[in-house]
Amino acid sequence: MGFENLLVDIADGIATVTVNRPKQLNALDQKTLEELSAAFEQAGRDKGVRALVVTGAGDKAFVAGADIAAMSRLGPAEAREFAALGHRVFGLLEALPIVTVAAVNGFALGGGCELTLACDLVYASERARFGQPEVNLGLVPGFGGTQRLTRRVGPMRAKELVLTGDMVDAPTAKAMGLCLDVVPPEKLLEHARGKARTVASRGPVAVATAKRLIQQGADLPLGEANALERQGFAGLFGGEDAKEGMRAFLEKRPAQWKGT
Ligand code: HXC
């Protein structure tokens, strides 16, 4: 599918989705969100896609937030719609059964930071800056930032970011748990794709199950979450991949995954 504001490249089982509005620092307007929705759905349907990397075009921004010019024209009902669209798209990304990796090449602000929060793994270039600057605009995060950020970094750090609106540099973001590694800009995409490739080489049903258990469990009391794990673990024994994975180990050969 051709996109106006995205570049999508699929190679080696890894889809790379690049938000491509560099003049607006890759800000998210309605069209870009709708295109992201279509790209994520497509990646979820395509059996050849085993991992997804999200990044931004140019060397300045990952995504500098929702498009402020477009947002400035919205009334309350339209703002509700816009927030709902973002929530839908990021929810879709979060629920993909494959690993999703953010390669944060520059500013990840507001909706851009929220986009990283919907990804499983986040890697940053030395040039990256993270922040939730909405209070500077008289706004609050609206694409899940108050909730996913709190779950990722804890309530006090989330409050510091959201209430001050201040940006943090990449090492600080790493110390807070907003990203995993900080690498030189020219190494970022390959670093992110390398991690994606590692996950993509593992048992796909196990990866999807583990991701689901970690996500669903985080919103449940521990007892229920542990019950979910037992169910997920046992469920794998009904499929081919767990049998194959264990057999391959015992036969000292690489596993041939069937995805069942
Ligand atoms: C629209 C944006 C934009 C944005 C930058 N631009 N961010 N346009 N929406 N979020 C545009 C600028 O207007 C400018 O356009 C061009 O990109 C380059 O940006 P500059 O400001 O000139 O660059 P610089 O001085 O280097 O500053 C970079 C920056 C700054 C620190 C990232 O642009 C900035 O603070 N941007 C806004 C960040 C932000 O507040 N994000 C949160 C948005 S609210 P021209 O035409 O002048 O060249 C949000 C809510 C999500 O995300 C939830 C909604 C429901």
Automatic annotation (TrEMBL):
Extent of the signal sequence: none
Keyword Transmembrane helix on entry: no
CDD domains in UniProt: crotonase-like (cd06558)
Domain of life (superkingdom): Bacteria
PROSITE patterns reported for this sequence: ENOYL_COA_HYDRATASE (PS00166)
Pfam families found in the cross-reference section: ECH_1
Assigned keywords, A-Z: Lyase
Gene3D superfamilies xref list: 2-enoyl-CoA Hydratase, Chain A, domain 1, Lyase 2-enoyl-coa Hydratase, Chain A, domain 2
Keyword Protein transport: no
Family of the protein in this entry: Belongs to the enoyl-CoA hydratase/isomerase family.
Protein name in UniProt: Crotonase
Highest classification ranks of the organism: Bacteria, Pseudomonadati, Myxococcota, Myxococcia, Myxococcales
